[in-house]
Amino acid sequence: MSAPDFIPADVRARLKALRLSGRRAAGGHGFGQHASRSRGSGLEFAQYRAYEQGDEPRQVDWKLYARSDRFFVREAERDSPLTAWVVVDATASMAQGDEARPRRSRLDAARALAACVFELALRQGDRFGLAVIGGDGLRLVPAGAGLRQRDRCLLELQGLRAHGQWPDESRLKPLWERIGAGQLAVLVSDDFDEAAVALAERLSAARREVLNVQVLTAEERDFPFRGGRPIRAPGKGE
Fold it and tell me: What is the CATH number of domain 9-21+81-216?
């Protein structure tokens, strides 16, 4: 099965001038287009930082410990790939479309945005993954690189439908195991559910770099209404 193409031709042409990067997101091991902090011998020294739980003992500068009686980790810099995750909100409210284009929903726009991120990451040699949050809970395509990885993510996007409510926080636990500190998470959502905003805040507080892209219809953006209007939140029984 061939992978779908969610990127309009004119948008794809403009992608050539764009680059995917984070303000503070760190790359992993390998070669790519990003300056990132990594540890090991033979790398250019960058700085010392205080030891944190999870650091390996071999990363500790023991000579500095002998002088200061405190644990420090030696960091170095090198170019290495970024790991980018696209987190797509697929709850019921994402099925809403514009009055002028009712067949194109917020979820369709989210698919196109996600596909653009995958395309940029692919061109840069970066790793990327997909997380979908919807009425069925959490669905993951683990981070990887290359054409097959892009096609896996696009095929997952193709099968999505917007339904249900934002799942309980306990069902999102695998996100914390997959999206590591220093990695980039692009959350694509209408942000109508406070839990979506809370997730972005928690990821950011846990040393993940988060880019929150809010998807709105033209009516929601411009609000060209007069008089009273009923407000209904799909999936929330209101």
Answer: 3.40.50.410
